[in-house]
C-alpha cells in the first residue's frame, strides 16, 4: 500500500508540473506578439513594453516556465495586465462560490442517486424501479447546460418560483441557498440517473453472492443484510466513479455559472477569454486541472482502501 | 482473424467461445436484429439524411433575416417560430445537424486513430517511451474537454478546425490508456511469444495479431463518444468559444435562445430535442454493440419494463 501510495502521488505531482509547464508555454504559441494582441491595434509602444514586462514576456522561455511554476506553487499567478492587481487576489470570491456549488452538487448527486438505486434493487419492478430504468435513459443523454436551461425556462421564466440570476451573498444565507437549488440540480441530475442505474445493478449482483446467502442462513434480519452487508459491498464500484464525477461537475460549473449568471471561476474564465486576459485564464485552468487531479488521486486511494483484494496487490503497476 | 478462426476450431461449437463476429457484416446484422439497435440505427440514418438533404427539407435559408417577424411563436409557416433576427428556428436546427456531425465524427476519428497508435506503441514497446506517454495521457486527461477548450480556444481562435482539434485532444488519452492496458495484457499471451519465436517481426505481431484483438471492443466506445463530442461541441459554441454566430449550430442557437428566453422559449426547444435524439441514439447503439459483443453483461438490466425472470435470482 505504501509503495502504491508513493508511486501514485509521484505521478500526480509529475502531471501537475507538466501541466504548469504546458500552460506557461501556451502564451508563446500565439502567432505574433501576445502583448499586441491583448492591447489591440492602436496600442502605443510604451504600453506594449509595459505589458510585456508585467507578463514577463521579455524573459527567455525557460525562465518564463520556471517563474510560472515557482510562482504558482506559492499561490502567485502573476499580475492581471488590465487591473494591475495580482491575479490571485481576484480569484478568491469566485473560487469560493464555485467550490460551494461543486460540493453541494456532489453531495446532492450521491444523496439522491444511491438511495434511488438501492430502492430500485430491493423492490424490483416497483414504481421507483420502473422510473429509474425508464427516466434514466433521457437524463443520461442530457448535458448539464440542457437541464440548466430547461430549469431556468420552467421554474424561473414560466412559474417564477425560483430567482433566476446571480449567486446572492453569504450575508443572506437563505437567499444564497435558494439560488443554489437550480444550478446544483442541473449539475447532479445526470448522476441521479447514472448512480441509480449503477447501484441498482451492483446491488442486485451483491444480493446474489454467497456471503449474503450465508448471512441469511445465520438468521440476520433482512434489513441488516440489505443495508449493512450488501450495500457496503455494492458501493465499491461507485468509488471508482468519483474521478469522473469530479470532472463532470467541474466542467459543468462553467455552463451553469454562465446560465444562472453566478459569480464563479467558470464565468470569470469566459469573461477573461473575451478580454484576452490570459494570466487570469491560465490561473483558472490550472485550478480546474489541479482539482481534477486531486479528486482522482483521492478516489484512487480510497478505492484501494475500500477493496481489500486490491490492497494486497503490492506490486501493481501504477502506470496503468 | 486467423487466430479467431483457430480458436473456433479448437473450442468448437459447443464451447463457451467469446462472441465471434463473423465479419463486419455479420456483426452489423446482429446489432440491427435487436429492437434497440434497429431503432438507434434508423434514427441515426434519419439524422444523417436530414444533414445531407437539409436544403430540401425546409423552404427557408438558415441565414435569411426577416426583421418584420422576430421571436414569433410556432405556426404552420414556422414550425418552431423565429429567432431574434426573424430566421426560421426549425431550419436552423436542421442545418445544425450538419455542423454537429461535421465536428463530432472527425474529432472522434482523430482521437481513435492517434490514441490507438500511441497506446499500441506504449504498451508494446514499453520502456522510456511508455513512461513518457503515460505522463502525457495523464496530463491531458486532467483537462475535462470544456477546460481544455478554455485553455486552447482563446489561442487557436474559434473555428471548426480548432474545435475538432480540442475535442479530439480531450478524447485521445482515453483511447491511448485503454489500448495500452489491453496491449499489455495481450502481449503476455502464449501466441504472441510463439509468433515471435517463429520469427515474426514486432511490427507483424502488432499488425496481424494484437491490433485485431484490441480494436473491436473500442467500437462501443467510439459510438458512445460521438454523443460526448456533440455535447461538447454545442456546449463550447453556447459559451461562445466554439463555432461562431451566425453559423446555424445547436450551441449558437441555444445561446441566442438563452438571451431571449424571457420573450420566446421556442428557440431553445429545437436544439435541445435534436441534441437529445442524436445523443440517445448513439448511446443506445453503443450499448447494443456492447451487448452483442459480450452477452454476459446484459443479464439483469436490459429488460426495460419487464420483470426480472425468477430463474435469475438464484
Model description:
The complex is a heterodimer of chains A (320) and B (314). Helices cover 76% and strands 0% of the residues of chain A. Chain A has helices at residues 2-26, 34-39, 45-54, 61-73, 87-122, 127-140, 144-158, 173-207, 210-217, 222-234, 236-239, 242-259, 265-275, 278-306, 308-312. Chain A is globular. By secondary structure, chain B is an all-alpha fold. Chain B has a single domain, classed as MetI-like (MetI-like fold), CATH 1.10.3720.10. In chain B, helix 7 packs across helix 8 (160-187), helix 8 crosses helix 10 and helix 11 (216-238) runs parallel beside helix 12. Mean pLDDT of chain B is 81; it is low at 1-17 and 297-314. The interface between A and B is large, with 61 and 51 residues.
Summarize the structure.
Chain A is an all-alpha fold and 320 residues long. Chain A contains 15 helices and no strands. Chain A is globular, with a radius of gyration of 24 Å.
List keywords for this structure.
A: 320 residues; mainly alpha; MetI-like fold; 2 domains; 15 helices; 0% strand; globular; B: mainly alpha; 13 helices; elongated; disordered C terminus
Amino acid at each position: 500500500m505504501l509503495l502504491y501510495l508513493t508511486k501514485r502521488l509521484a505521478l500526480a505531482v509529475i502531471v501537475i508540473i507538466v501541466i504548469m509547464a504546458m500552460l506557461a508555454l501556451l502564451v508563446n504559441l500565439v502567432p505574433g506578439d501576445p502583448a499586441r494582441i491583448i492591447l489591440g491595434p492602436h496600442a502605443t509602444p510604451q504600453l506594449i513594453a509595459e505589458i510585456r514586462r508585467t507578463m514577463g514576456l521579455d524573459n527567455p522561455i525557460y525562465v518564463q516556465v520556471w517563474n510560472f511554476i515557482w510562482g504558482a506553487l506559492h499561490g502567485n499567478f502573476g499580475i492581471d495586465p488590465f487591473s494591475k492587481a495580482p491575479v490571485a487576489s481576484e480569484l478568491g470570491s469566485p473560487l469560493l462560490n464555485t467550490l460551494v456549488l461543486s460540493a453541494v452538487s456532489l453531495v446532492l448527486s450521491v444523496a439522491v442517486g444511491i438511495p434511488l438505486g438501492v430502492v430500485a434493487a430491493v423492490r424490483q419492478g416497483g414504481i421507483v424501479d420502473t422510473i429509474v430504468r425508464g427516466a434514466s435513459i433521457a437524463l443520461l443523454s442530457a448535458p448539464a447546460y440542457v437541464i440548466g436551461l430547461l430549469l431556468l425556462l420552467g421554474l424561473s421564466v414560466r412559474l417564477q418560483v425560483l430567482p433566476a440570476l446571480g449567486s446572492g451573498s453569504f450575508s443572506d444565507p437563505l437567499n444564497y441557498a435558494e439560488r443554489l437549488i437550480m444550478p446544483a440540480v442541473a449539475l447532479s441530475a445526470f448522476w441521479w440517473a447514472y448512480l441509480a442505474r449503477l447501484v441498482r445493478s451492483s446491488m442486485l449482483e451483491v444480493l446474489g453472492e454467497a456471503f449474503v446467502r450465508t448471512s441469511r442462513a445465520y438468521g440476520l434480519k433482512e434489513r441488516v443484510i440489505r443495508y449493512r452487508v450488501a450495500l457496503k459491498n455494492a458501493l465499491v464500484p461507485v468509488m471508482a466513479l468519483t474521478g469522473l464525477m469530479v470532472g463532470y461537475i467541474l466542467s459543468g460549473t462553467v455552463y451553469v455559472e454562465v446560465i444562472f449568471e453566478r459569480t464563479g471561476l467558470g464565468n470569470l474564465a469566459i469573461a477573461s477569454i473575451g478580454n484576452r486576459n490570459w494570466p487570469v485564464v491560465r490561473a483558472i485552468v490550472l485550478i480546474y486541472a489541479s482539482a481534477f487531479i486531486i479528486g482522482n488521486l483521492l478516489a484512487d486511494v480510497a478505492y484501494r482502501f475500500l477493496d481489500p483484494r486490491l490492497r494486497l496487490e503490492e506490486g501493481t503497476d501504477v502506470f496503468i | 482473424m486467423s487466430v479467431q478462426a483457430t480458436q473456433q476450431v479448437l473450442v468448437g461449437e459447443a464451447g463457451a467461445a467469446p462472441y465471434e463476429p463473423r465479419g463486419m457484416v455479420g456483426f452489423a446484422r446482429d446489432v440491427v436484429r435487436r429492437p434497440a439497435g434497429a431503432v438507434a440505427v434508423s434514427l441515426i440514418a434519419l439524422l444523417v439524411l436530414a444533414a445531407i438533404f437539409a436544403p430540401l427539407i425546409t423552404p427557408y435559408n438558415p441565414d435569411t433575416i426577416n426583421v418584420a417577424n422576430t421571436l414569433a411563436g410556432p405556426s404552420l409557416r414556422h414550425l418552431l417560430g423565429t429567432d431574434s433576427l426573424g430566421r426560421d428556428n426549425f431550419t436552423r436546427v436542421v442545418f445544425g445537424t450538419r455542423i454537429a456531425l461535421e465536428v463530432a465524427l472527425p474529432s472522434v476519428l482523430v482521437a481513435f486513430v492517434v490514441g490507438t497508435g500511441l497506446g499500441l506503441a506504449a504498451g508494446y514497446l514499453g520502456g522510456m517511451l511508455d513512461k513518457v506517454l503515460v505522463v502525457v495521457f495523464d496530463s491531458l486527461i486532467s483537462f475535462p474537454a470544456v477546460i481544455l477548450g478554455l485553455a486552447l480556444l482563446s489561442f487557436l481562435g474559434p473555428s471548426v478546425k480548432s474545435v475538432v482539434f480540442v475535442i479530439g485532444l480531450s478524447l485521445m488519452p482515453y483511447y491511448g490508456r485503454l489500448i495500452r492496458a489491453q496491449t499489455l495484457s495481450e502481449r503476455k499471451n502464449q501466441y504472441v511469444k510463439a509468433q515471435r519465436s517463429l520469427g515474426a517481426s514486432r511490427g507483424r505481431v502488432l499488425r496481424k495479431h494484437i491490433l485485431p484483438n484490441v480494436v473491436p471492443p473500442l467500437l462501443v466506445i467510439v459510438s458512445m463518444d460521438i454523443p460526448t463530442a456533440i455535447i461538447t461541441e454545442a456546449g463550447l459554441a453556447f459559451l461562445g468559444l466554439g463555432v461562431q454566430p451566425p453559423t446555424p449550430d445547436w450551441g449558437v442557437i441555444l445561446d441566442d435562445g438563452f438571451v431571449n428566453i424571457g420573450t420566446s422559449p421556442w428557440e431553445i426547444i429545437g436544439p435541445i430535442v435534436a441534441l437529445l435524439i442524436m445523443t440517445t441514439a448513439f448511446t443506445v447503439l453503443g450499448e447494443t454493440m456492447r451487448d452483442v459483443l459480450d452477452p454476459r453483461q446484459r443479464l439483469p438490466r436490459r429488460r426495460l419494463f419487464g420483470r426480472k425472470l425468477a430463474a435469475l435470482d438464484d
